Amino acid sequence: MNGVEKIAAGIVIFNPDDKKRLYASINSVIDQVKTVYIYDNSTEKNDYVFSNRVIYMTEHKNKGLAYGMNRIMERAQSDGFDWVVTMDQDSIMPPDAIFLYEKYTQNNFRIAIICPQAIDTRRSYMVAKKVPDTEYIDFCITSASCTRISAWEKVGYFDEWLFIDLVDNDFCKRLIVSGYKILRLNELVLDQEFGKIIPKSERVQNFWNRVAQILHNNNFAKLGYKKFVNPMRVYYTNRNIIYVNRKLKQFGNTAYKENYNCNGYIGFLFFFMLPSILRAQERTKVLKYTIKGIQDGRRKKVKVWKP
Fold it and tell me: Are 34 and 3 in contact (CB under 8 A)?
């Protein structure tokens, strides 16, 4: 295969523990596109062996996910591409996904992102939607999403201050309020791992799944799994949820419903902050980073965004 002419792929990596998985990620997409861009946030030098169709970039500093994606988008734009499929270092693209994306890139110039469903198959409460075949949605994760470069440029790039968490929520919200659309192809399902978890017994999972169904809130289904809490991710989440909602306050709440199944900051306290502290392996450290995240999110000078 020669690959799709106007669509490139981009992967931001950071100290990958499983290099075989990284190579599998690259191989899952390399025959579907002309070029794969890799931006490496690792601080240590790595000896990778890539195809000559892979363009490798690094500054030997961890500048964050948003920074890496912006550098990939800039390079792809400079090289004449119109779209970029952004991937995580462990993403495995479904076969022929990008060839399917290409069919929709010409249909509507207001489409800014074409994406698959993202399902964590470890979580029994997550079930892929089978119909309709396609639908417009308000939010998608960046992994495996095909983004129109001109739309990315129009709304002001990915917000690099966010560093990692809520980058996709912020970007999608700015696209939607600017009149762009996000098209999901439900026939494509990406197996995406959300966090480090260990499923509990099937009986326990079924119990909490049932509670979640009765209360119409999947936060309760998450109690069927043991969660490993990363203090730094807790910091960025607590910091960024405040920052993003200050930045986009005139357009309603951002990220609460999509990420935490709640309607506002009070729900976020109960469904993310408190469980993160109670379930943490390093509870004192997580509490410390939670407080620091709240403080930094409030102190940050924010320019209210306008389309």
Answer: yes
Q: Which residue has the tokens 């999110």?
A: 297
- Kindly report, residue by residue over 48-103, the tens digit of the pLDDT: 889 999 999 999 999 999 999 999 999 999 999 999 999 999 888 988 899 999 99
- 32-45 residue pLDDT tens: 999 999 999 998 88
Closest residue by Cα to residue 39 from 158, 188, 184, 150 = 158
Smallest CA-to-CA distance from 22 within 3, 41, 38 is with: 38
Q: What is the pLDDT of residue 1?
A: 37
Instruction: Report yes or no: 119 and 187 within 8 Å, Cβ to Cβ.
Output: no
State how far the Cα of 293 lies from the Cα of 285, in Å rounded to an integer. Answer: 12
Facing residues of 58 across strands? Answer: 40
Distance, CA of 220 to CA of 172 (rounded, Å): 26
**Count of beta carbons in the 10 Å neighbourhood of residue 167:** 24
Report which of 96, 119, 106 is spatially closest to residue 33, judged by C-alpha positions: 96
Question: What single letter denotes the amino acid at residue 151?
Answer: A
The DSSP bridge partners found for residue 85 are 9, 146
User: Tell me, what DSSP letter sits at residue 231?
Assistant: H
**What span, in angstroms and rounded, lies between the C-alpha atoms of 177 and 161?**
21
CB contact at 8 A, 15 and 40:
no
For residue 233, give both structure tokens: 């991710």
